[in-house]
Specification:
The complex is a heterodimer of chains A (about 500) and B (about 500). Chain A has 17 helices and 11 strands. With about 500 residues, chain A is an alpha/beta fold. Chain A has a domain of about 250 residues: Amidase signature (AS) enzymes (Alpha-Beta Complex), CATH 3.90.1300.10. In chain A, helix 7 runs antiparallel to helix 8, helix 8 packs parallel to helix 17 and helix 11 crosses helix 14. The longest helix of chain B is centred in the middle third of the chain and has 20 residues. In chain B, the strands form 3 sheets. Chain B has a 9-stranded mixed β-sheet with strand order 2-5-6-9-1-10-11-12-13. In chain B, strands 4-3-14 form a 3-stranded antiparallel β-sheet, with no helix packed on it. A two-stranded antiparallel ribbon of chain B has the order 7-8. Chain B has 16 helices and 14 strands. The chains are: A alpha/beta (about 500), B alpha+beta (about 500).
Chain lengths: ~500, ~500
Amino acid sequence: MTDLTKLTAAELAGTIASGDVSAEEVTRAHLDRISAVDGKVHAFLHVDADGALAAARAVDAKRAKKEQLGPLAGVPIAVKDVLTTRGVPTTAGSKILEGWRPPYDSTVVERLRDAGTVILGKTNMDEFAMGSSTEYSAYGPTNNPWDLGRIPGGSGGGSAAAVAAYEAPLAIGTDTGGSIRQPGAVTGTVGAKPTYGGTSRYGLIAFSSSLDTPGPCARTVLDAALLHEVMAGHDWRDSTSIPQPVPPVVEAARRGMSGDLTGVKLGLVTEFDAGDGAEPGVMAAFHEALAALTKLGAEIVEVSAPHFQYALPAYYLIAPSECSSNLARFDGVRFGLRVGDDGNRSLEEVMSLTREAGFGPEVKRRIMLGTYALSSGYYDAYYGQAQKVRTLITQDFNQAFEQVDVLVSPTTPFVAFPFGSRTSDPYQMYLADLFTIPTNLYGGPGISVPCGLSDGLPVGFQIMAPTMADDRMYRVAAALESAVGTLTPPSLEG
Amino acid sequence: MTTTTLPTYDEAIAGFEPVIGLETHVELGTNTKMFCGCPTDFGGEPNTRVCPVCLGLPGSLPVANKAAIEATIRIGLALNCSIATWCRFARKNYFYPDMPKNFQISQYDEPLCVDGYLDVEVNGETVRIGIERVHLEEDTGKTLHVGGATGRIHGATESLVDYNRAGIPLVEIVTKPVPGIGALAPEVARAYVTELREVIRGLGVSDVRMEEGSLRCDVNTSLNRPGDEWGTRTETKNVNSLRSVERAVRTEIIRQASVLEAGGRIVQETRHFSEETGDTRPGRSKETATDYRYFPEPDLVPLAPDPAWVAELKAALPEPPRERRKRIQESWGLSDLDMQSVVNAGAVELIEETVAAGATAAAARKWWLGELARRANEAGIDLSAVGATPAQVAELQTLVDGGKLNDKLARVVLEGVVAGEGSPTAVMEARGLAVVSDTGALTAAVDEAIAANPDVAAKIRDGKVAAAGALVGAVMKTTKGQADAKAVRELILERLGAS
């Protein structure tokens, strides 16, 4: 019998729609897989078996009544624990939200439910999406299915690992500086960050409001595109949501799968290609992929993006500044953890003790950084200056896209690193997002697609497109996938 | 603390020039809150008019209320402001439990409306109050401190928060500093808030009730010696009535003058006004709340009001209250003083509607400022809530003019109207209060009075017509007041051959 967990989302949807297999069987297969391997991987913080089976049965009932099913009906999915799920625990990887059950669904989750996808549970992440390894999760790290002694990337390491370990064919991530793409790269999976505003942030526990973008995680480009279309689109509850129609990403992925990129211009950012900070094995795999793409008809054009070098420092002013304000609401007054409320302490003391106990070290570091950057007298020098850099980076992108269709780079400078190897120096951790952050500051879409191995570990290839031209990157990504194939991690059994 | 005898206001102001400034918060009467769909009605069981957005739950996002933006622009236009073509909301960050998100969505360096003015009249003189800015923000919740002696957070055993008010749209109107008004400063402050209230009420965007907190006022005051630079200002909060606005400025001028005269210096601080004592007391030190770390609200898109839309709003503004009052004063033929008393009583609209319903301005004014104002004062309610409508007052006056009621009877009828017994005609009929105009019955009553008072009758016959008053009183008594006194008098004189 087919191992249902090894099928793609597109295949599962097809087989459920045809009646060859029920949604419930598919769900049970994935729940069994989670039981079997998640002890080793720790991709999930919460598995909602009852909710998942109920959703699966609802799809089966609809099918029995010959009602119209959505393109992903019955397909299991894992959701990053930063998106609210009504009545289901949502922690954002933090102790401060332990036990909180939101009274409402995020828009993305609502759309997943409406589409008939089956939510298996909530995935592990760096606390409040701050980190590149899941080592900052308050609930312990997720282990990379390729090597359990290595990080799965972050912040969305749980979602990427769940997909890589066949615990779910699809997952939702959120990308603020690379939190979908970098985990995708180091787990050998596909991760896409849509155009900012292309997917709703309503119900996404905010880290950095002007950067946060929910997006799809999958094992194939087509699956990512299918999920992208289900989750994207205008939402009146998010004022920054874009009212225009969702770019035709599924159509673009199918077109790319034909393997023809004739006439497509790929921009190679010269500043990135200098290779500073990128491992030789990563650069080697990246250039092999470039060669493969040229064989498909693509043209490589070198472009300059002089301000990309300031992206990382600008990001580490903007994101912490916004987070220092966004995370102020976690004070023990209305929800979540409360510490020290013994009747003798003042409100301020209780707030302070709650935040002291509830937040981990990286979150505290960024809150302090952001509080400082926004403080009176420093605002212009830090936050204000970073916003100017952001404008210049946007100009770099706009000028580059006058010459080329998409920009390409390695997704992250290094393959999955061993646990503990970058936690002592925050800057070494921040470098993981060196190539992904510019896209977030610009607001355009980016995708990471596997392009090979370096020392037996996956390397990701990043494609960046103009805002609301998400379809372009899917086309190139699908073409690359057709040329180099998907990656299969070692077996976790035994 | 040593008790010092404070100077009188006149003594205090003699050596100083005051500069005042006012910050006024107005809760808009929109159907829904500023950034969510929750209702805005006053009151309600605590924490029932809330949702994930106004509770600031993780993941929730604000969506700006267009009606509130429109109302703010209209206020700005009515205050002669320029309307921004592009502006943003900003986050004001501070920790306090009545702030669900621990930041308030407000506006900082990019307000919706800037640089306007409002002319007010004090003692017949026009004072132009500069308007620095008008901006839009969200209200906070309300904290109730239980168990302490003062109702303040200090000493309280429990603090309860009600978030029903959290997120109600709030417009902040900030004046420019107002110098050069000397001893009139307290009256200018009061006149400004009074006029502002009229302007906003006229726009129909808020009920501007100070007692319910839908209009709240902070008063800044500083003193300087003539010729010196402006002094250090204090900010007085908790000023909850028009009278308190005036008192707060007066009290603060006296306090600051006594400090300065004694060689002390004024500390920049927030002070709380006490309605009971009229004193101001030091409140939260500014020290702990100086840095709000403002930055543009990233969850909202910039506001860019279409200039054509703003022009439409401007064209559709109601007549400014001051111009309207001038027009009305002329048409009613009132003196400045009389007009002022009408305005102070909040009777302009009521009289206008009564006139529209057919009464003369003089009659309408007489009822609203006389009998009805007295009742409203006694009950401690607004004149508009006294229980009589302009149409009813006009009807009452028609009955008087038609001779069906005399003045005294009309008052009794009005009492019935106010008590909810129906229209003046209905009350008159139900209570049997119409003037006795049946000449036969009246003549009998007059003859009876003449017979009962032969001495008085003799005097009248002798030409002392002034004595007729006593007989009129007797007739009114037997008719239980239901006679027209003038007619009675004429009849008495006629019967006694003295006419």
